[in-house]
Amino acid sequence: PEAGPHPNAIPHSVKIAWRQGARESPIFDRGYYIITPMRILLINQAFVSPDEPGHTRHFEMAKFLQSRGHELVIVASDLNYQTGQRTVARTGVFAEQNFDGVRVLRSYIYPALHRSYFWRVISFFSFMFSSVWTALQVHDVDLVMGTTPPIFQAVSAWFVDHDPVSWLGLL
Q1: Quick one: which of 89, 99, 86, 106 has its CA closest to 50?
Q2: Residues 113, 137, 9, 22: what is their CA dihedral angle, to the nearest 10 degrees?
Q3: What percent of the chain has pLDDT over 90?
Q4: What residues contact residue 29 under an 8 Å CB cut-off, 6+ apart?
Q5: If you write DSSP's letter for every residue of 31-47 in order, what string do you get?
Q6: What is the pTM of this model?
């Protein structure tokens, strides 16, 4: 009997978008696209580690993708959204953490999420800019995702995916 599809298989009837310049294209085998292992970058301001209070859906997603051979690198703020406390000591724009093989880059955010609407927006903008800088430190990324709300992470992901560094002539 024929073996079942590869664990990273997607039926050929599913339309898939492959980022131009990605490391490899999908492989077509027995009616399935075999997705080669990818490095995925997720920008999420309110990431919660397994050690913090709150819902850990992005950590769980990272573990699931890891079980399929992919790598999810998460760019998150260094502030816990619920407690308002710093989650890690930083010496630069970001600090790196590792939770059970999941790489998390904790980027700077201005600590004023719960002061007022005005200061919340200032916090969102501070993370938007620092997360772009942090995300650009991750190389060979195949897919960039930004979560909303707030909309600012989607803007960060768009900038990272469209390579703003080359626009400025810095590389």
Answers
A1: 99
A2: 130
A3: 15
A4: 6, 9
A5: TEEEPPP-EEEEE-TT-
A6: 0.73
